[in-house]
């Protein structure tokens, strides 16, 4: 018997259209995740939502913010998701259920995985919180497919969970990095599927 959690990664204004580091299709993902949860919330013992939550300049968040050269959009990025700013808020079309566990990551660090973040109002890591709730399986959705979604799913497997990415509920920065990311996830044993695949 599996106990399943949904991890919603970084569905934040700065990663959606009009934001500082917009991903094409980000706002559509916000709406799609909301629709999915309206139909499928019963599948999940827990919903987790992560946010990138960076320190403002002059803190580069360990080199995550490009300051001396243009961002390469692979390891350096425009300033985004500064803690407490509108860009760091969840997209307004993302409706999270009561009891959602919130995670903040990247405070003066360049965290990509939700498992590297700090769980709000709980002690211990995200892996600890999931384990304490009896979670065995996680489904990962959100932004962006080729970076934080992949890092989160990969860390879920490393932490001993069975992990699935619901690809239709994600959006990516770029195709080449997405192809590498999904190949890596498949190698690591992550299931790649669609939200309506049963
Ligand atoms: Zn970031």
UniProtKB/TrEMBL annotation:
**Domain called Isochorismatase-like: residue spans:** 5-195
Q: Which EC number(s) does UniProt give?
A: 3.5.1.19
Pathway annotation from the record? Cofactor biosynthesis; nicotinate biosynthesis; nicotinate from nicotinamide: step 1/1
Set out the biological process GO terms recorded for this chain's protein.
Answer: pyridine nucleotide biosynthetic process
One Pfam annotation reads Isochorismatase
What superkingdom does the record give? Bacteria
Quote one Gene Ontology molecular function term.
metal ion binding
Which UniProt key words apply to this protein?
Hydrolase, Metal-binding, Pyridine nucleotide biosynthesis
Matches recorded under InterPro entries: Isochorismatase-like_dom, Isochorismatase-like_sf, Isochorismatase_Nicotinamidase
Which residue windows are transmembrane per the record?
A: none
Task: Give the protein family.
Answer: Belongs to the isochorismatase family.
Q: What is this protein called?
A: nicotinamidase
Organism name = Cellulomonas xylanilytica
């Amino acid at each position: 018997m599996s106990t399943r959690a949904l991890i919603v990664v970084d569905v934040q204004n700065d990663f959606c259209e009009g934001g500082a580091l917009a991903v094409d299709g980000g706002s559509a993902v916000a709406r799609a995740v909301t629709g999915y949860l309206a139909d499928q919330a019963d599948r999940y013992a827990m919903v987790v939502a992560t946010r990138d939550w960076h320190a403002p300049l002059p803190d580069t968040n360990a080199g995550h913010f490009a300051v001396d050269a243009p961002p390469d959009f692979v390891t350096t990025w425009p300033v985004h998701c500064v803690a407490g700013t509108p860009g760091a808020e969840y997209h307004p079309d993302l409706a999270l259920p009561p009891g959602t566990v919130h995670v903040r990551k990247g405070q003066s660090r360049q965290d990509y995985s939700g498992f590297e973040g700090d769980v709000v109002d709980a002690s211990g890591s995200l892996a600890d919180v999931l384990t304490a709730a009896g979670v065995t399986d996680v489904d990962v959705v959100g932004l962006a497919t080729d970076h934080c979604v992949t890092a989160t799913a990969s860390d879920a497997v490393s932490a001993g969970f069975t992990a699935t990415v619901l690809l239709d509920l994600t959006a990516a920065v770029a195709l080449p990095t997405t192809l590498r990311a999904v190949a890596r996830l498949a190698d690591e044993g992550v299931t790649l599927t669609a939200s309506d695949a049963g």
